[in-house]
Specification:
Subcellular location (chains A, B, C, D): Cytoplasm
Function (chains A, B, C, D): Catalyzes the NADPH-dependent reduction of N-acetyl-5-glutamyl phosphate to yield N-acetyl-L-glutamate 5-semialdehyde.
Number of domains of chain A: 2
CATH architecture of the largest domain in chain A: 2-Layer Sandwich
Family (chains A, B, C, D): Belongs to the NAGSA dehydrogenase family. Type 1 subfamily.
Oligomer: homotetramer
Radius of gyration of chain A: 20 Å
Active site (chains A, B, C, D): 149
CATH topology of the largest domain in chain A: Dihydrodipicolinate Reductase, domain 2
Order of helices and strands of chain A: EHEHEEHEHHEHEHEHEHEEHEEEH
EC number (chains A, B, C, D): 1.2.1.38
Structural class of chain A: alpha/beta
Strand content of chain A: 15-25%
Shape of chain A: globular
Mean pLDDT of chain A: 97
Largest interface: A-D, 47 and 47 residues
Number of strands of chain A: 14
Number of helices of chain A: 11
Strand order of the largest sheet of chain A: 3-2-1-4-5-7-6
CATH superfamily of the largest domain in chain A: Dihydrodipicolinate Reductase, domain 2
Chain lengths: 345, 345, 345, 345
């Protein structure tokens, strides 16, 4: 059994980790920290876990995280980098669901997150936790920067095209839509039901924190200079993410070959489903599961390829992906504990 | 492995059976029938099942249901009673998610469903599939009438009170609220998103088909004459059911004793959670799971007890309960394949 | 033109007042106060008002409310009673959308709102602003306690029955359901989209602030002692309220006579619509309008009457009713500026 | 008073016309046809209109449409072109909310709508009813092809850029999102609440009927060849449309000048609101109103302009725009009867 600690389990990525780990056959939840909720049984905050998760929140001091095999950080940025060095020194693996270990470009981190990076040594060895593109490095990593939700969809949607060198890398567009849980359990007027329901809007169009991480990773896939316009939107739904990706083809290629390119790229992936050419994936087809689905479109008489990508932002876009990384790091089958069938309708 | 057939798997109870059975360790889905969709892979209709359910719909003629160990009917009323005799004769157990085998009072069946009952012999031996009240009979049954969604909440909420003889059985009120999936995948203008979203209404206030079944079952629990006002409402949510039950106490009893009564009644039940006195269960705390939660309230200075009951109408209210019955019928642990943690948020 | 001031216009009842007053032919919005948002154009907070409302929020000091003809308080409890005396002394009429002037029983106010009532003199002359039951008194009032949203539905639903003396007044039940805007624009985790969407729950079952106000008013309609069980629920919709009322008939009376009783009671009311016997009103049929709709049901063979009442909680349940009162107080036609057709779908 | 007929008023554009016309000071609804609902009072189908619209549906034979001043067609394609000639010959003006008179290119009409165009004579004189681009022609038109909902947003968002000749017209992208009411009141499984709620998807990515109409109109604004990728998506909300438009700038131009270009283009328009540069308009800020809002964004260091456009698809995107055209055709102030303040929240 893997002894597991969670730092900051009161938010949505935290409770989603708990949901997944509760039925993971190799997981033994040892500690979950919350200074504010010290002593409160987790199931009192989240009645969905009544009878399934017995632990209580504990203050960081009591939590004995250094006795864990792995610690997940489901915290705001800045927390993981302050605690990771001590844990790693104690032999504990660290998986950060926040951005502290995602961006190798420290200047970019500091620009977008408005704080100095205090743990650049560990950052250098940290591995970006996207198994489909980074599997081998994850297996031996001590520190994982778990990808953001939007970046997961953009990378898995653009990767085969950039690797094949068949699109204009400098002019990519990602028009992305997220359910409201992507904003976390944060108290902000804009996320109130009466504000966010029955409405739709873009946000952060002039700049969003998930952009630099995505560009940095995409740049590893091509020698061409990557340029990306990323437009996030808020959808009145709880979970789910839909990215509509636009890439201009620079080579003649048939639709069948495009389809084959994607099917080949992901044929052994347990959590990437390439749907038939021209399909319209729905976010709900991934609800509660670690599956990400992709479909290709080529509007008539045109060299523009449209790639549709859907996932559950809290699973493949966050906590599920983190457990997928954990499985790899501990030599388990990658899909252990992650075979939830999507809840539909 | 239990060889399983499903008749009429294109609706919500059908796809929910498929979701549950896909990870049930003892279930082997052998056939799923749909005359209209013969040959269509199930996953083409329900992309959420891509990679998880391999079977295709087949016409009833090809389905070889008589070779199954058990056949679930996820069909409109009238279908199960026409096919059950032949299956039972072939040694196949039958679990009907529709009402054909719920009501022992044939006149009531014919009044509410507008058709003659053509299988009264089997009806006589059929067992009402509510494990918490009927466990032993289910274990040896050949035919199960799986309870309706509303009746499950009303029975489990009222049962301890009626058994204890401490409420006015003649004047029970159940004000019940259901998510829209309760109406099935039926094409009806009133269930369109643009009609049912952002609105709330009652329906069937003058009379609803789930009333006679509930009264018949409740009557088994008390010698007093049961009278029940049942008011169903439609909630703009997909899954979930919330029943607010009103019962007038006829004996002096403390809140602590009431709470103890319920906790005792359900203390060994894997799928009934009695929450602390005064709690307000949310339907989402059961989403995607077979759990039903109950909480008691006693508005100040008053002999009226208010019982709040929540469940996922498609799981404990339908397909999950059917699998719970199957487990009992085949000697498995009752919770086999049913330990999904609710998806929250 | 009526010169109008609004205190505390940043919440939902405030912005709804602004929406209604923007097209009211006799209304001239003079000032709207918010200490926190001093100087901010109202339309910057509420873009729906761009081009339609030109005023900016101003601090109370600058607002010159004493020069208004009427001031609406769209504030938390406690504010109106602190400012009303000075305004009334200056000849300004006061309409409080909060509870300060609703409850004549000061002890009840203090019990439920946890603060002393500091303005009991004005309270004595204050008029409860439900035009259908209190029209003449409203016309000459200086201070109006505008009814709560739930109480409006309960009173208009029970009133004809209590006046006629045909129901058991001691055992009324109101099972009520409200859209989330009823909670205001308050930052509370439970009202976040990801918490309140796709779920349903009861709240305040053991006691809710709208109970004493309702009982006090209902008691004026009958010599029998009124007893009321009131169970509020939260519906995943923005606007809308549905109250399901249960009253036991104590006299023999036909359904036709019951229907006539209600039709007669409300035949001259511009904002009460008695639907045909057995109808199921939807909340959306009142969305954005000041209309309240009622329908009666009599479940078979039973002396229980079920009364269904729907309204838009922000209009007839709050700001629309306040404007209706204003119209009466200033001698205008009662429906002036209130003839919005419900927005449907 | 303008005598008005409506053909096919049982759908959402029909009921929205009724809502608007019910408070239009110059409108007199004379007839509304529905063969199927002949004799049914409109308010029986749409209780939101109880007390506000007195007419009943009548069969086309009885409707005496030729005595009207104007007839709106809120019908599927093919109906208006079959009835318009007779009406126009009788001196009746025709406003078609369907596509029969939108596309001058008959081959395109026949390709996308799969039927021959039987009324090409009238089509030639028909005017495309987008007042902001076509005002003078509308004033004297006998037949109006009222624009589709998506096309309205795309045209008003791209028009200033194309007229100014500062973008790459051949490579426009429109990523558009619509509420479910855009699909009409059609019985289709995909629009059921339990299917469309809490999910998001694209549809018609390979080709959508609103594309040719948009390209045809945009082409009038520029000598460059227009190329447009149009990707529609379905949002789980009732009303509202959000178009995210991408255009590559071909000239050096400052953000201030871009903003000025749009503000100048629409400075006299009653129903186009150019928001501050960098704003994020929400669809709900237009709910129930005829207002369309636009905001510009320029992601850092980039020649890509992002234009955000929102509207209520049933008002400015359909019925409101049709009434706006009617006002122009009958010499009324353009905003007569259209000054609804958006319903928010």
């Amino acid at each position: 059994m893997i002894k597991i600690g969670i730092v900051g389990g009161t938010g949505y990525t935290g409770v989603e980790l708990l949901r997944i780990l509760a039925t993971h056959p190799q997981a033994q939840l040892t500690a979950i920290t919350s200074r504010k909720e010290d002593g409160l049984p987790v199931a009192d905050m989240y009645p969905s876990l009544r009878g399934r998760v017995d632990v209580a929140f504990s203050s960081p001091e009591k939590a004995k995280l250094h006795e864990c095999d792995v610690v997940f950080f489901a915290t705001p940025h800045g927390v993981a980098m302050s605690q990771a060095p001590e844990l790693v020194a104690a032999g504990v693996k660290v998986i950060d669901l926040a951005p502290d270990f995602r961006l190798q470009d420290v200047a970019q981190f500091e620009k977008w997150y408005g704080m100095p990076h205090t743990c650049t040594d560990l950052l250098k060895e940290a591995v970006y936790g996207l198994p489909e593109l980074n599997r081998e490095a994850i297996k031996t990593a001590r520190v994982i920067g778990n990808p953001g939700c939007y970046p997961t969809t953009m990378q898995l949607g653009f990767a085969p095209l950039l690797k094949a060198g068949i699109v204009d890398a400098a002019n990519l567009i990602a028009d992305c839509k997220s359910g409201v849980s992507g904003a976390g359990r944060k108290l902000d007027v804009g996320y109130l039901f009466a504000e966010a329901s029955d409405s739709f809007k873009a946000y952060g169009v002039s700049g969003h924190r998930h952009l630099p991480e995505t560009v940095e990773q995409l740049q590893h896939l091509t020698k061409d200079k990557v340029g990306l316009i990323f437009t996030p939107h808020l959808v009145p739904m709880i979970r789910g993410m839909h990215s509509t990706l636009y890439a201009r083809l620079t080579k003649e290629i048939s639709n069948a070959d495009l389809q084959a390119l994607f099917e080949d790229a992901y044929k052994d992936e347990p959590f990437v489903d390439v749907m038939p050419f021209g399909a319209h994936p729905e976010t709900r087809s991934t609800r509660g599961s670690n599956m990400l689905r992709i479909a290709l479109h080529r509007p008539a008489d045109c060299n523009m390829l449209v790639v549709l990508v859907v996932q559950d932002n809290l699973v493949k876009g966050s906590s599920g992906q983190a457990v997928q990384c954990m499985n790899l790091m501990f030599g388990l089958d990658e899909s252990t504990g992650l075979m939830h069938v999507p809840v539909m309708p």
